[in-house]
Amino acid sequence: MKEYINQYLDRYRKADYYPWHMPGHKRQDVFKDDFWENMFLRDFTEAEGLDDLHEPELFMKDSLEQMQRFYGTEKTYMMVNGATGGILTALYACAPEGASVLMGRNCHKSVCHAVSLLNLKPEYVVPELLPGTDIFADITPEQMEQALNELKKTDRLPAVVVITSPTYEGVISDICGIKNVLEPYNIPLIVDEAHGAHLPFMPKRNLSAVAAGADLVIQSTHKTLPSLTQTALLHVNRKELVPKVERYLHIFQTSSPSYLFTQSMEKAVVYAGNHPEVFDAYRKRLKHFRKKCKELRHIRLLQPKQTCYAYDKGKLVFTVSGVHPAESGTDSRNDIPATGPWLAHVLAAEYQQVVEMAGTHHVILMTSFADKKKAFEHLYEILKHIDSELTEAADKAGRNADQMNHVDSMSVLPDMENAVLCSTGFHLPEQVMTPGAAWRLDSSREKLEEAEGSIAADYVYAYPPGIAVITPGEKIDGQVIRDITQMVETGLNMIGVEYQTDGIYIPVTEPVR
């Protein structure tokens, strides 16, 4: 037998790829002790003289109580199966089976799966798009109030509200304002803060949903703090939810939680809490890097100003435009359009810089305080070189971007007909039945181009980030078909579709013609 995983990862490590992606420790010895070197020696289980994460009485109890005091919560729990387990626990604790849920359409697939398992009736708040991009903006208190007023007219008030903040791209919503809107209805607010575990340690701590008073907050410590992959925290700010949360934690957490995971979570939080200087230095590095990126012409760093409530500047979202010219002496028709997947490939294949994800026209690079000044400087020089090789794409009349005067201070996107997320907003398909009901029906595969009028039997999304283009129970229309087709053709990693020699297939239930 061979160690296939170990051998491949060893080769990958020696290739010296730089991780502009999670986990937040960036494969560095952040703590400067023996933790990373002695994993097996630290791998314990619930034995005599040790403690049980599910029924803590000794040192785990002390650790959790310390976190509770630091974060100012009613309870804080360590999650050893990631934010997904925390999201499932939170929704089961708040929503009885068959209830209504009001959720952002940009919620992660784990929220959608909980909706299907509980056969909840989803109502959606669809965020607007940041100007000039295909990236969701924040969900505002005004949008939430309008949605609740509409639902109240037909006696469909939700049992729970779920939103994502910050988003994958770093957009932060006004959690305190949204919580105030929900207060008269006594509706609990769940915030998927998977990408915001670092926010309580940044200068503006109140940008975290924990400090803003959301009832349940889930953070992935491994994304932006130096913790092992698959670790997360679940924070509870509403006392009456504690018994239900603990009931479902026994279901959605393994009965043998990893001591390595719990140690890495504690070390990450304690280190971050004891070393505010590393976050101050990190903030300064980001500020300097962002200022330099204003010099780039075709690779534009997302720099929201007054277009959303707040923004996590640790997320580096680069939109890309133009074309990469063909080799000298060849036909210009061989020019390569500059897309998100193209930029991600060039960064990895030619410069050993691996991004977190590639969207249709953008890439996301995740940073943490473990990213040093030298890494940012090297990245900028690479981007500057790639940027210098790009040229403007001409429109159908032969005008370039300068002539059209369409340069935006935030980003530039090609004017594409039928874009996945067009500038007018996200396309929301008609919901025919609940996701849970459609999920439970028999399904078959239908060719995408012939599926108009059918009902989707499963979620279809690009992963990452895992935001559904269509959910089970929604009708497949022409725009959905165009969106999915373009996403596939752009090279995104699509989940929920099947590729066959004669085309793309999608799971459907009974057609509605």
Task: Indicate the proportion of strand residues.
Answer: 15-25%
Q: Residue share in helices?
A: 25-40%
Shape: globular
Number of helices: 16
Give the overall pLDDT as a whole number: 89
Low-confidence stretches: 395-424
Distance between the termini: 54 Å
* Major sheet description: 7 strands, mixed
Q: Order of strands across the widest beta sheet? A: 2-9-8-7-5-3-4
**CA radius of gyration:** 23 Å
Broad structural category: alpha+beta
Strands, total number: 23
What does this structure look like?
It is a single chain. By secondary structure, the chain is of the alpha+beta class. The protein has 16 helices and 23 strands. The protein has helices at 4-14, 59-71, 82-94, 109-117, 141-153, 175-182, 209-212, 221-224, 242-252, 259-274, 276-293, 340-351, 373-389, 401-404, 435-440, 478-490; strands spanning 18-20, 75-79, 100-104, 121-125, 160-164, 171-172, 189-192, 216-219, 232-236, 299-301, 310-311, 315-320, 323-324, 336-337, 353-355, 357-358, 362-366, 444-447, 460-462, 467-470, 494-495, 498-500, 503-508. It has a seven-stranded mixed beta sheet, with helices on both faces. A four-stranded antiparallel beta sheet has the order 10-12-17-16. Helix 11 (276-293) packs parallel to helix 13 (373-389). The termini are far apart. Mean pLDDT is 89; it is low at 395-424.
Task: Write a brief caption for the model.
The protein has 513 residues and is α+β, with helices and mostly antiparallel strands. Helices cover 34% and strands 17% of the residues.
